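step: validate -> pass
step: tokenize input -> pass
step: predict -> running
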Amino acid sequence: MATVYLVSRSDSYSCPQRVPLTEDKVQPVVRRLSQQSERRQSEERRKSIASLEKAAVAEQFSFIQQGKLPTNRQIHSIISRFLNSDVIKEQPISEDGQYVLKDIQGLLDVLQRALDSKNPDELLQSMIFHAKRASELQDTEPSGVKLLTTLKVIRHCLFDSRFRSLLSTILLVAQNILSKNAASRSDGKGKGVADRVLPEDIVEDLRGSDPDLLRNNDVNEGDLISHLKNIFDIVKENPEYKSSLEALLTLVVIWTVRLSSQPIKQLRNQNSAGKAFDYTNPNLNIPDWELAALEAKRILERWSRDIRLDPFIKDLNNLACIVKTDEKLYDLYIKARILIHETLDDEFNKSSWLSFIQEIQDSGVVNSYQKMMTNLIYEAQSNIQAFKEDPLSKEISQKLQSIYQRLWYTKWNGMATLKPHLLDDFKMTLLPALIEQIKYVPLPPFTIRESKENTMVISNMILSGDTLMPETIELKLDDNLRFHPKSKVGSTSVQGLLLQLYDIETIMEDVKFQYKRKVGFFDITDLGVATVHIHGLKLSVKVTSDSMDKLHRFQIQHCFCHINKLDIRIKESKHGNFYKVFNPVLTNVVKRQITKEIEKKVIGLFHKGDEKLTKHLGGRRNSKNKDKRRGSFFSQVAQVVNHKFVNGLK
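step: predict -> pass
step: emit ->
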């Protein structure tokens, strides 16, 4: 019998499945977090990202207040997010709404292409920055330019066909006066100068209701007076045109003065060599308002197929020098200015204009410079035509015209028709898509002073965009009409609009506060960070319009703001126990001050709107019959909107 002995040592046992352990196979120990820890880390990451986004938005708003607009890249990002919004893609809308939405998307696409081709070096942002800084620093002389008027000049020249036609009509009337003067002194040799000087497409485009004015040079005085009166009527009906014409003349003067300066020559040489204009160069030593004017000129040149305005400005400067040195020509210039201002302020005086035209045609000094003036008119008309023929400008105008037609007119009969279903489409698509782009809205800081002893400054308040919309929006309209059939007392009407917003819920995190309390000889100061949660904010605004009130188009009867509940949680402070004790008192004080600030801001916005509406409608009303009965408030608002669209997109 065989015996088997198993002998083993505990320190030398070899397992056949054993694999040698090396450093490259050592894996780090991963400890699985609990669900609570994962949620906590996820919340911390979310807050960190939100804090960075809030800081970026606050910084961007601060830049905008300083006049620094978003860069081209940021504008592209905003437009792209809007075009690719899921709300627009998923929400069903009506057929008219689909056409309008398609036109809006096409317009935004054109604007993106315009940013790349017309504004590659962000010259528009630079012009706005210089114009705003000049106004803030009061760095403007009597001949300086302002931001809004400069933007109006650019908008009217590039996209307002009626304004361009107005400029062309002014030039053509002057052309016919000069042509008739030349013809009378050259035995008919000056006949047809307007047709020879101006391209045929310009002549055809500007004939208007009286084609005889441009078809031949045999123009009677009645035709000239009719067109002159039409020019002044258009300017009086559109106060913006008057300010734009004045601003355009101001810009031309600035361009003329700076044309021969050494810094501008240097910039012009850089541009001819293919280099971008560097108007921000501190070595130029040019005031901000002049920089804004020069940048406006370059913007206009880019939208006119890169036609340089300097040759035209130089010729215009030469003519201006001649006018200053020639006494007879200067007297005619002064008479023209006086007559223009009198006509704009009062009614059109036919006899005065006939007398002035006859004086020009009988003057030999005008005939001496007739060729120079004619060439200037031709150059000006060529520049205006270049604005009109720019492909992007034409495309933008066509898109705006298409949107206007879709909004106000029916496709089968071409009549203006109210389309309430479009309001529903906008409410369900465009409004949510716009709010979706507004992630955060920073609020300005405000100070709470309940007494001389207690002062609190609250800052870094940033609202989330998804909390801006209320749960319910309520509108109430009423129209009260009073008339007296048995007396000669005129009728009166009062319209009212009640706007109520219910249940606005919002939360503001990382709100900074500074508290100061002075009691006797002791001062208590504190700095801290808090979270403010607003529950159930309600805003009610009542606006009325009285036909007997000639100073205001509408007035606010009341503005009431109420916060149902306000929670303030102090996160950081030096005196934490103090706030725990006085939290109810502090909450009531802050709640009361927030409602006051909201009411103050809303009232201020409505007052500014009333000023603008009164100024616009007042100017139009004064240009016609002053005794005409004023329409209702809502009809006036619709009249303003329609008037702007018709004149801007006609």
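step: describe -> Residues 151-285+302-389 form one domain.
step: cleanup -> pass
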